Amino acid sequence: MELIQGGVCAAKGFTANGIHCGIRKNHTKKDLALIKSKVPCAAAAVYTTNLVKGAPLIVTKRHLANGTAQAVIVNSGNANTCNAGGENVAEETCSLLAQALKLDPRDVVVASTGVIGQPLDLTPIRDGIPALAAGLSPAGGGDAAEAILTTDTVKKEVAVSFEIGGKTCVLGGMAKGSGMIHPNMATMLVFLTTDCAVSAAILQKALSKDVQKTFNMLSVDGDTSTNDMVTILANGLAGNEEISSEGDAFTVFMRALNTVTVHLCRMIAGDGEGATKLLTCKVTGAKDEETAKTAAKSVITSSLTKAAMFGADANWGRVICAIGYSGAAVDIHRIDIAFRSPAGTVAVCENGAGVPFSEEKAKAVLSEKEIDILVDLKDGGCQADAWGCDLTYDYVKINGDYRT
Amino acid sequence: MELIQGGVCAAKGFTANGIHCGIRKNHTKKDLALIKSKVPCAAAAVYTTNLVKGAPLIVTKRHLANGTAQAVIVNSGNANTCNAGGENVAEETCSLLAQALKLDPRDVVVASTGVIGQPLDLTPIRDGIPALAAGLSPAGGGDAAEAILTTDTVKKEVAVSFEIGGKTCVLGGMAKGSGMIHPNMATMLVFLTTDCAVSAAILQKALSKDVQKTFNMLSVDGDTSTNDMVTILANGLAGNEEISSEGDAFTVFMRALNTVTVHLCRMIAGDGEGATKLLTCKVTGAKDEETAKTAAKSVITSSLTKAAMFGADANWGRVICAIGYSGAAVDIHRIDIAFRSPAGTVAVCENGAGVPFSEEKAKAVLSEKEIDILVDLKDGGCQADAWGCDLTYDYVKINGDYRT
């Protein structure tokens, strides 16, 4: 298994494009993305658990009921959520695209991101689709990745190649993160593609299993979006025997999927709104995985811990406090805590009580861009990682005036 | 029932004091507070549900097992939590105070607030107790309220007078809030006193019932502290017949208690770390109270909503999003949302979809210091309030460098 260049077009038979069609007023910001497979794909998705669900999610869920799809269209600049007629706009978008690409509208996945509660005007989408479709290219993954961003500062793409039954397969993806990121079942707009042959049922199983350890362990601000969605398309062009049950091939596929999704999680967390640092809380020694996950997610969600990391302040009391209120059944008096970064490791708490440490060294460790918060519960053999970012002035600035 | 001047000394027979004893390095900041009743009191308390519990809470719980207390000692500057020997320091503090006041150490309540994980030096407390006890006065409530503050910017005191069986009773209190405020059972350091005669059992019942609607509906930053504690002392000096069961007198007492605790909640929320605005989310039309509480608390806890309120941005999508992920079983398509302040009311969402509104008026409404977020679920007759504050640059600043 190795990381390779590219994103949603890294796998065989996928083309993509991203353009500015006019949903956003700023002409320099792309706002419409398209991914297309040469052949129909097995498709799977997971969606937000928020009771408020964006209209595109409702339409996509309907279209993916048969487990196949061939194209994905995504707009940024408007979430098409909590407005009148949003579902019609999403369906019409799929129909217009299907016409341009000569597909069945039910083979189109649709997604939107942006402000909630405003009508989405179909006009720029209708006017933009011909150019969007005409520009499809195997080199268009980067433009698509750019067109789905909102307050993100960098494109998020990753791909991996792996071998199944002697055939080289590729799995790649792109993501949009930044704010309103605290997924519960999925996260804000992740699109994965693979040329690996996988049945729709097993694809759904793989994705549903993976997100529990990846996107559901990610938080920027504790707010679970209304439009979270992760989709994966598998077109089978790698030529491997279709994976249709659990077994060795499934295990390899799960590893490839997890490699890609963990990379995207880290990219989303590190590029969280206003973030200057990527935080990874690594909980080990848990009696079961659920305990490890609960504790790890609570730490990276704590506003106080996040602000302390921004200030490079080794205030570990906030870490143990967040574990204490997390709901995880842990023995506080066994917990060890350390901070780790490229500048070294500093132990700050042993058996639930503080130990002397060099403030100077701690400052150096916490001044790096990527920080691991290491928590050992010393109560078993299970572990979990969770990803987040620091809480900064810029997060407040961005969200104090998001709509203008 | 009427609001009167004062705090913990407003009720008959209570004296208090607050001094600088040297736990804090800053000589201008008081760090040791004392409340004393002339006679033994019925006493009740509620504590944090955080698995990490400050040593003073463990000691106080032990001392209140018999339902009586006569004095309360509180230090700021160090939470006496997650350190070695913290329980001994807390017990020793009670013993030293009991000696000075000629009380049984078990009649002393002890509490601490400040940084977690550092040893609490007994020396300044031992050296300070004589002056602390000597300075007890019916006018000392303000000094005590000052000595328990950490990053709070104002003292939090309130008192109310009411009548039971022809006797005038008084109930007053003081609180310390600011950061790490997201109580679950209680909140960070609230001390209530009353001269009303109430049995310990009924006092505990009243307090436990009240906190569900007051302190448990308050959040500054989503972090549940390790040292949350609300205590109430009732010395009976008002001369009313002791309230020892539910009934009319109990109802009046509950109203008095609620009036005081709601005031303290609003003061804590409005003075949250870095806060510029007090937010109240008022949920009405819920099918049951639990639904109303879950929705209201989710809204005032949402970082995105809090940042939008800081920026006076009427981004109501964040309000409905927070209701959607709260876990409350609501019909999203019935929800009405409006913002209200002294500058007026602006309706922004009806039946789950946006309605046109004047951005200018919304800006005026949201530029006030106290903002109500009105949510009507139109699904029943139950309601709940929750209190919070905006998320500001100063919250990040304060918590990026808390320990220095």
By CATH, the architecture of the largest domain in chain A is named: 4-Layer Sandwich
Q: SSE string of chain A, helix = H, strand = E? A: EEEHEHEHHEEEHEHEHHHEEEHEEH
> In one word, what is the shape of chain A?
globular
Work out the strand percent of chain A.
Answer: 25-35%
Main structural class of chain A: alpha+beta
Task: Supply Rg of chain A.
Answer: 21 Å
Ends distance of chain A: 44 Å
Extract low-pLDDT stretches of chain A: none
What kind of sheet is the major sheet of chain A? 9 strands, mixed
Number of strands of chain A: 15
* Domains of chain A, number: 2
What assembly state would you assign to the polypeptide chains in this entry? homodimer
Largest interface (CB within 8 Å) is between: A-B, 65 and 64 residues
| CATH third-level topology of the largest domain in chain A | L-amino peptidase D-ALA esterase/amidase
Helical fraction of chain A: 25-40%
Give the overall average pLDDT of chain A. 89
CATH class of the largest domain in chain A: Alpha Beta
Name given to the CATH homologous superfamily of the largest domain in chain A: L-amino peptidase D-ALA esterase/amidase
Instruction: Please count the helical segments of chain A.
Output: 11
Describe the fold and architecture.
- The structure is a homodimer of 404-residue chains.
- Chain A has helices spanning 55-63, 86-101, 123-134, 141-147, 200-213, 248-270, 289-301, 303-310, 317-324, 359-366, 393-400, and strands spanning 2-4, 14-19, 32-47, 68-76, 108-113, 156-164, 167-175, 190-194, 229-234, 278-286, 336-341, 344-350, 353-354, 370-376, 382-389.
- Chain A folds into 2 domains: 2-270, L-amino peptidase D-ALA esterase/amidase (4-Layer Sandwich); 278-400, Ubiquitin-like (UB roll) (Roll).
- In chain A, a hairpin with a 2-residue loop joins strand 12 (344-350) and strand 13.
- With 404 residues, chain A is an alpha+beta fold.
- In chain A, helix 2 (86-101) packs parallel to helix 3 and helix 7 (289-301) crosses helix 9.
- In chain A, strands 1, 2, 3, 4, 5, 6, 7, 8 and 9 form a 9-stranded mixed sheet that branches. The first copy, chain A, has a 6-stranded mixed sheet with strand order 13-12-11-14-10-15.
- At the A-B interface, helix 8, helix 9, strand 13 and helix 11 of A face helix 8, helix 9, strand 13 and helix 11 of B.
